[in-house]
Design a protein that fits this description.
Radius of gyration: 19 Å
Number of strands: 0
Helix content: 55-70%
Structural class: mainly alpha
Largest sheet: none
Distance between the termini: 39 Å
Number of domains: 1
Number of helices: 7
Shape: elongated
Order of helices and strands: HHHHHHH
Bound molecules: iron/sulfur cluster
């Protein structure tokens, strides 16, 4: 396996023993909530702005933002992850990331996560805020249904999958701001 070898002059880690090896079908399944969130968000923007020339621009722009956001994580976060270029990455980004960049230092993962995760955070809030605003302006049942589905997917299913499924067995969860934020904050406080 690739993490048994040195890449880019960075020594391999012997303490990373990926607990799972995801098949292509599992990887595809694990991507469905993010894809669903992007598509639901795009539909909310299209429906919410239906009376505006911006409807399709916003809708297609949101789809592109979702795709670029995933690529951004692959380029700027995944090379620092212990699951880079392994099938232990639940969503397969780690495999794609290996085609884009060489492995980087594991101990900078938390720093890179903190720096780059804000790039994709608006994906969770743009449809929500735009949808609520549109509902207040002109109530519509289809828009409300889309908004509820989006909220369940983005704020319940996606975090639950990350914490219970992908991240639960991750060897760097204690330094990951998503999974072990309290540990990172207490370490930072003790150094201050
Ligand atoms: S587990 Fe997360 S950070 Fe690690 S390679 Fe996969 S998507 Fe990237």
């Amino acid at each position: 396996m690739t993490n048994q070898t040195a890449v880019n002059n960075i020594p391999a880690s012997d303490d990373c023993q990926p607990p799972n090896q995801y098949s292509n079908a599992q990887t595809l399944l694990n991507n469905i909530p993010y894809i669903a969130m992007t598509m639901l968000g795009s539909a909310i923007l299209a429906l919410g702005l239906a009376d505006s020339v911006w409807a399709w621009i916003a809708s297609i722009g949101f789809l592109l933002y979702g795709a670029v956001g995933a690529l951004w994580i692959m380029v700027f976060v995944c090379p620092y992850c212990r699951y880079w270029n392994t099938r232990a990455c639940p969503c397969g980004y780690g495999i794609i990331a290996a085609r884009l960049r060489n492995r980087q230092a594991y101990d900078r993962f938390a720093e890179k996560f903190r720096k780059h995760i804000p790039v994709i955070v608006p994906l969770w809030f743009i449809p929500l805020l735009a949808g609520i605003y549109s509902l207040i302006r002109a109530f519509s049942w289809p828009l409300l249904v889309l908004l509820v589905l989006f909220a369940i997917d983005a704020f319940v299913i996606l975090p639950m999958l990350s914490k219970k499924h992908g991240c639960a067995d991750c060897p760097q969860k204690d330094t990951c701001p998503w999974m072990g934020g309290r540990n990172v904050k207490s370490a930072a406080a003790s150094q201050a």
